[in-house]
Amino acid sequence: MWGRWPAWVPWVTAVWGVCYAGVQVGWVLAGAQLPLGPHFAFPAWVQVFLALAAVVAAVAAVRGHVPLLFVTTIVFGIGTFGSPMELVALASGSGDGVGGIALVHMALDVLGVGPLLATLVSRLRVSRGRCPRCGRDHPGGYGGPLVHPAASTAGRGVRWTVYSAMLGVVPWAATKIVWTLGGTALGVTGEQWRAANAGDSALMNALSSAGIDFTVLAAVACGLLMLSLVQRWGTRLPRLLPLPPAWLTGVSLGAYGIVLTVLSAAWLLGLVAPPAPVWPLPTATDTAWMTGFGGLAFGGLGIGLLVAAGSYAGRTRPRCAWTSLPRSHSWKTPMWCSLGTSTPPLA
């Protein structure tokens, strides 16, 4: 079954699209709006647009329309931004910061982007005359066994890029650790930091009292994920275990980190007016520096994850070992007979 994913993933995408559209229409009829922050909500027409986009995605998946698949994958991919941060908030016991409806909406986007992207990739490969499963030009269908490459380590350039990106976490993590240990950094004492976070969950307060910051632990988890993607031992894991979280987290953290880094640089260089101090940080300059530390940390983790995931995807991509059809076989039409059906499942 898993070996024939190009045949059934489009139908999974179609079912998701119909369910997604139904949820959005139900929310509109019930008067429930998607919140964007504590003081703003999207108008109802945005939910109607998303419902229509989900229906378009469902039809495009079944019909194999590559341009529509590309556009809808981007639309629903945008909806996954911030999902790693929300997961950290939930894991820390801090609750969801976006509200129940927005959290469900984000979860629906996350569940749909994977099948959408898989359908898009398989259809792109077919349109180029290649195998929809492994992406290579070879004789035979895709119902046969797969040959997996040997375990390998990422190239030196990739490894050094990833390790350098990890170093971006150091200023931000060091500042957090100093605060949790009771020291002073950026004009803020440990007591002031704990007072500012007095409303955190019991888990976060317990870790903080032991000198451990939960967000630093989350950054360490990202670092371990990056190591699994570039080291030989990581290629022995099931391929879909590290890749989806790496892509998802890398895109969100990378985009967020770049924005924070640019803002911080603009503030510190005097290109734009500095921000108001954010308590407990005493000055605008301290706020700008902490923003920059966060940008380097999130941007470094995000870019490192994307680079590592790209290397891992290439090094672990299996190839088909099916050779029952002649080289003149066309992927675009006759191959569907190898699935035991006369109807092209992706056409």
UniProtKB/TrEMBL annotation:
Which GO-annotated molecular functions does the record name? D-Ala-D-Ala dipeptidase activity
| TM segment ranges | 7-30, 42-62, 69-91, 97-120, 160-182, 202-227, 247-269, 289-309
Top EC class, one word: hydrolase
The EC designation for this entry is 3.4.13.22
Keywords linked to the UniProt accession: Dipeptidase, Hydrolase, Membrane, Protease, Transmembrane, Transmembrane helix
| Entry annotated with the keyword Hydrolase | yes
Q: Which domain of life is it from?
A: Bacteria
Coiled-coil annotation reads none
Q: What is this protein called?
A: D-alanyl-D-alanine dipeptidase
**Source organism:** Kutzneria kofuensis
Phylogenetic lineage: Bacteria, Bacillati, Actinomycetota, Actinomycetes, Pseudonocardiales
